[in-house]
Specification:
Layout (H helix, E strand, L loop, with lengths): L5 H9 L4 E5 L3 H9 L4 E4 L3 H4 L11 H14 L4 E5 L9 H13 L5 E3 L7 H9 L4 E6 L5 H4 L9 H17 L3 E5 L3 H10 L4 E4 L7 E4 L1 H5 L16 H17 L7
Parallel strand pairs: 1-2, 1-8, 2-3, 3-4, 4-5, 5-6, 6-7, 7-8
């Protein structure tokens, strides 16, 4: 398996081959995704919620995201690793944005960064790209703006919103993004956006017509104490398997069945 790059991801779009991606926050999970030849491993700021128990992604810090990114990149040899830029790591100034993006590559050994926003972050994206850092855009439902949006709600339902998202996608492409995450928008709009830009569009809760799909790994495994988004698909109930193993260990200790001589 060859190392995934921005060029190989672009070729997948051109050949109409689906891009497959999941989040990861630790060495072991990342090693499995790499072994299974996932195209992208995203070190998502969703770690704040599914790893650290926060209500939103907003509390994630640079230090926390670098910690998770380092764990993931130690494991990955071939997948394309993208680090999520946390809230306030790129909004304060262009200089801060370039510096923090650079830390993910220099210290975290990521291959690219992801940041949220449309036309309003174009200047930031251009500066990061000029520094030689690949950028994955993110529009639609942008979790770092959950307070502004009024909750985790579908975007692009009105004609005005749809037009704005289409404009944002084209602006991100022009700014130099190598791809776009499109979160929680109607499938017909996702189809239109995907076909309106030449770069890969990776959907999450945006229908099947995007160039690829991504989900939060904990939602896929059923490893969460909180409700998963409606668009997520649970492929196993790992939490129940954990419970059984923990309970069996507890019972063995109480009943002196463990350890054996």
């Amino acid at each position: 398996m060859e190392k995934k790059t921005v060029l190989s991801l672009q070729k997948k779009k051109e050949k109409k081959e689906k891009i497959v991606s999941l989040t990861a926050y630790d060495y072991f999970t990342a090693s499995l995704l790499d072994e299974l030849e996932f195209d992208i491993v995203l070190v998502g700021d969703s770690a704040a919620m599914v790893f650290a128990g926060q209500e939103t992604t907003i509390p994630a810090t640079m230090d926390e995201m670098l910690y998770h990114t380092k764990a993931v990149t130690r494991a990955v040899k071939n997948s394309f690793v993208i680090a999520d830029m946390p809230f306030m790591s790129y909004q304060t100034s262009i200089a801060d944005a370039v510096y923090n993006a650079g830390r993910f590559l220099k210290e975290g050994l990521a291959n690219a960064v992801k940041l949220e926003g449309g036309a309003e972050v174009v200047d930031v994206i251009k500066a990061i790209v000029r520094a030689g850092i690949p950028v994955l855009g993110h529009i639609g439902l942008t979790p770092q703006s959950v307070n502004k949006l009024g909750g985790f709600v579908m975007q692009g339902k009105t004609a005005e919103e749809a037009e704005r998202l289409l404009y944002d996608a084209k602006e991100l492409e022009q700014a130099g993004c190598f791809g776009i995450v499109l979160e929680c928008v109607p499938s017909n709009l996702a189809n239109k956006i995907t076909n309106s830009v030449s770069i890969p569009v990776i959907g999450i809760g945006s229908g099947k017509d995007c160039d690829g799909q991504i989900l939060v790994v904990n939602d896929v495994l059923g490893l969460s104490n909180k409700s998963a988004p409606k668009f997520a698909k649970k492929y196993m109930d790992a939490a129940e398997l954990y419970r059984k193993a923990f309970l069996n260990f507890k019972d063995d200790v109480i009943n002196t069945k463990f350890p054996l001589e």
